[in-house]
Hints:
The chain is 44% helix and 16% strand. By secondary structure, the protein is an alpha/beta fold. Strand 4 (85-89), helix 4 (90-104) and strand 5 (110-114) form a beta-alpha-beta unit.
Amino acid sequence: MFNLLHSITGLNVGGAESMLLSFVGQLDRNRWRTEILSLMPAGPLKARADSLGVPVRSAGMARGRPNLAAIGEVRRAFRDFAPQIAHGWMYHGNLAATFGAMRSGRRTPVIWSIHHSLSGFAHEKPMTQALIRLSAAVSGSPAAISYCSRVSAEQHRRIGFRPRRQVVIPNGTDCDLFKPSPDARGRLLKLLGVPQDAVLIGHVGRAHPMKDQARLVRALGSLLKDGYSVHGVIIGAGHLGGAAERAVREIGISQNVSLLGMRDDVADLTPGLDLFVLPSAWGEAFPLAAAEAMASGVPVVATDVGDCSWLVGDAGGIARPNDTESLIAAIKSVLDLTADDRRALGARARQRIVDEFGLDQYVRGHLDLYEEALDRSGRPTDSRAARASRAFV
């Protein structure tokens, strides 16, 4: 059995955090003993880790402020758990994995996972920019870097990331969890209290300037003026009192937009949408929420940031970022389809995820990285262990 330590900034709701938990949930527990090190207090997704039986320890770091106590907790995690592999997630988690492995006195191979694109680097906080540049300076230390996006890999190369080994492993979607449901639309209409003929346009994501949800609200306002019977459904933390709600009030469409906050039944609600829209201005790498909508049989319109064009392919529409008219046109291109054509587009979207971006491909890609790293580190990996390291449930 191999000890596998994952380090991550926290377990708040987000794409990388969700991928971590989906990943560890698939591992063969007879081969992988897993623990998660959350640098900050763990957050709401700790409950999911608990349900998987995966221990979580927190280093107690305050947001954006590493301290000596947190550094000491990282060292203790490596000392107590003695991982054979350390897997970092996002910039803070990557650096913590590298630091902990170096200070442990063992030749622990480290894998970095990068879930961020740099298309809006100038918009990042100065501390984040400094963190990215520091990561570039030590990017030759991990055994491998896994990027969830081709665009992200190239952007990081341009600013100086020079890993010994790099791979692109797109975020993987659990297609057994996110799947079409013939009853979902009726349930969602009832939840929202809107007419049967309403066209439900949805978005899932926390409130953040890079997500540009206010632009989606403005697009909805224009569609309503043009006679489209649309109803917006925005799911995620921070929208009440945020930019999206302010835009709803300014435009005067509060009856046509539902801000549902954070939900734990997203997989049940998503198949009820007629269209999913990702209006991001920058920062996306490979948006998991859009992939989950596609797996649910819902067509997607996304802005051309990160690998959105690669993800959507011919199963939706692409708009220019920071361009409301382009977003409206892309949405109309789907809404103007017949109902049968829209359903066919949704079916094509699901098939694309199943064929190319499923969770099983994601897990296998990382297990291959682990095996390579163990081989290079000189750890004993006989043929039985090598075969087992590929196994997951």
